Amino acid sequence: MSSFKSIEFVDDHLVLIDQTKLPLVEEYIKTDDYERIAVAIERLEVRGAPAIGVSAAYALALAFKKYEDNSEIHFKKVYDRLASTRPTAVNLFWALNAMKNIFEHFCSEEVKLYDVLLTAAKEIHDDDVAKCNAMAQNGLPIFTKKSVVLTHCNTGQLATGGGGTAFYVIQKAFENGLVEHVHADETRPLLQGSRLTAFELDKAGIPFSVNTDSTAAVLMQQGKIDLVIVGSDRIATNGDAANKIGTYNLAVLCRYHNIPFYIAAPTSTVDLSRSSGKDIVIEERDKTEITTIKGIQITSNDYNYYSPAFDVTPHELIAGIITEKDLHQPPYNFNVGIS
Ligand code: MRU
C-alpha cells in the first residue's frame, strides 16, 4: 500500500504533498491560508481534477477560520479567487458550488461558519474517497484477460482525494491478477506521467515502464497494448471528454489499432451544462513550460508557442466511461441517470 498522503486535513491546516517536487523530493505544504492554496492550484503543487476540487473546498472553509464577520462579501471574494485558478477541471466549480450552497443555507444562522464549512469540505473529501472505490470496482469488467495497459498523465492518489480514477481502476485490476504491466506516457510538458504516475506505480508495486508520449504509437503497432485508460477533467453530456493534452492522440491511435480506449472519472467531472466538448474551456499554459525544463532554458522565449493543457476526445472514440455509478457504454447521454 502507498505510504504517502496527497491531501490531509491536520490540526486545522491543509497538508498537501508538493507535486512539483516529486518523485525526487517528498515535501509537504502545510497551510491555513486560502490564498496559499489558490497559488498551490495555479502552480500545480496540487493538481488533478478531483484533488483540485477537494483542496478548494478546504480553502473556502479555512477562509473562515479567523474571520469573525460572517460576510457574504468575504465568501464571494474567496470563491472568485479560487474559481480563477484553473478553468478546465469542472470538479473545482462543482466543489465550490457545493460549498456555496452550504454557505447560503447557514450564513444567516447563529453558527460558526468555519465549523459548518469544514464539515462540508470533509464530506466532499470523503465522498471522493468513496467514488474512487466504486470506480475501481466498476472498472473491473473491462479487463477480459491479464492485460497490458497504457495510461496518460496522472490519475491516482495524487490527483484525487481517494485512491484515484483511472489509476485506481488499474491498481484494483492488478490486485485481482488482471494487469501484467503498465506503460506510462511521460506526459509533456509537465511530466505528470514520468514523475507522478511512475511514483504511484512504484509505491503500489505494479510493474511498469515510462515512455515518451510519441512512443505510444509504436507500442500499439507492436501489439503490446491491450487497453488504454485515462482520467478526465470535464465530460460533456454527450460523452466528449477533456483530459491532459495528448489524450486525443491516444484515442485516435487506439481506433486505428483496434484497441479499446476508456475514461474513468467521477460524476462530479460530468458538466451537465455542456452538451458537447466544443463548449469546454481549455486552459492555456505559459510558454515557459515548453521553453524550460526545471528552470533550465532549452529554447528561445522569442518563438511563438501554443500550449493548451488539455484536449477533447470525441465520444465516438471512447469504448466506455467508468464512473462511481456504472460502466457507461455508448451512446452516452449523461443528461439522464447520473444525478
Ligand atoms: O494539469 P493537470 O495535471 O491537473 O491535469 C490532470 C489530468 O489531466 C488528469 O488526467 C485528470 O485530472 C483526471 S485525474 C483524476
Could you describe the 3D structure shown?
The protein has 10 helices and 15 strands. By secondary structure, the protein is of the alpha/beta class. It folds into 2 domains: 7-133, translation initiation factor eif-2b, domain 1 (Four Helix Bundle (Hemerythrin (Met), subunit A), Up-down Bundle); 138-336, 3-Layer(aba) Sandwich (Rossmann fold), CATH 3.40.50.10470. The strands form 4 sheets. A 7-stranded mixed β-sheet has the order 6-5-4-7-10-14-15. It has a 3-stranded antiparallel β-sheet with strand order 1-2-3, covered by helices on one side. The longest helix is centred in the middle third of the chain and has 27 residues, at 113-139. The chain is globular and about 65 Å long. The structure holds 5-S-methyl-1-O-phosphono-5-thio-D-ribulose. The site of 5-S-methyl-1-O-phosphono-5-thio-D-ribulose has 19 residues, from helix 2 and strand 9.
Q: Tell me, what is the CATH class of the largest domain? A: Alpha Beta
**Helical residues, percent:** 25-40%
> CATH-wise, what's the superfamily of the largest domain?
Translation initiation factor eif-2b, domain 2
Backbone structural class: alpha/beta
Given the C-alpha coordinates, what overall shape results?
globular
Number of E-type strands = 15
Query: Residue ranges: pLDDT <50 for 5 or more in a row?
Result: none
In oligomeric terms, what are we looking at? single chain
Rg (C-alpha, Å): 20 Å
Quote the CATH topology of the largest domain: Rossmann fold
**CATH architecture annotation name of the largest domain:** 3-Layer(aba) Sandwich
